[in-house]
């Protein structure tokens, strides 16, 4: 298991599907891919796919669980993010110090770390923070310390990436040969990748009012057969989803 896959980003009861997509994008730009969703209100959802903007692979591989304990049961280090003071003080680290601890911890192949992000409106509960060894506090402006969920994930993931670079461990293979990269894009799409595309297609067709029945079961069954016969590659799936994302953007009121 690669080092990057031993780091989980756990979103606890996220409300807005767009935030999930933005988090996926924030993760992929920093070389992380393991996203866990605890009781998301709406997922999968076309808004998540739209805002992922090329990071659909993170969404397609996201793990959805019904409890926080299920999300972190295999983790040996758990850190929770928080912006507010608690009645009981908690061991606290800033993002840079937390990132250093995480990278050192997952250097062992038997260790896994999780970073918990709470609800957009209220964050993590005290009981959820109790399951963490440390809390991460971003030293934001005390007069306005509320960060967008994806921004908080991006900031902490950046520090993790910088620590990985500084410790010469790396979160991805930056020296990957071009031929290997090309082969990865040309491999056949997985079932999860095809299903992600088809769900995105269905949501877009409904938004376009192309179909009058929701869900359009018969139509989607025919389209599923059509695209399965095409034996789509990863690159082709990405192209098709990019087209759908552009259509979705045009449909969204400015």
Automatic annotation (TrEMBL):
Catalysed reactions listed for this entry: uridine(32) in tRNA + S-adenosyl-L-methionine = 2'-O-methyluridine(32) in tRNA + S-adenosyl-L-homocysteine + H(+); cytidine(32) in tRNA + S-adenosyl-L-methionine = 2'-O-methylcytidine(32) in tRNA + S-adenosyl-L-homocysteine + H(+)
Domain called tRNA/rRNA methyltransferase SpoU type: residue spans: 7-158
Keyword presence, Metal-binding: no
Enzyme class: transferase
PANTHER family given in the database record: TRNA (CYTIDINE_URIDINE-2'-O-)-METHYLTRANSFERASE TRMJ, TRNA/RRNA METHYLTRANSFERASE
Subunit architecture: Homodimer.
Function per UniProt: Catalyzes the formation of 2'O-methylated cytidine (Cm32) or 2'O-methylated uridine (Um32) at position 32 in tRNA.
Name of the protein described by the UniProt record: tRNA (cytidine/uridine-2'-O-)-methyltransferase TrmJ
Source organism phylogeny: Bacteria, Pseudomonadati, Pseudomonadota, Gammaproteobacteria, Arenicellales
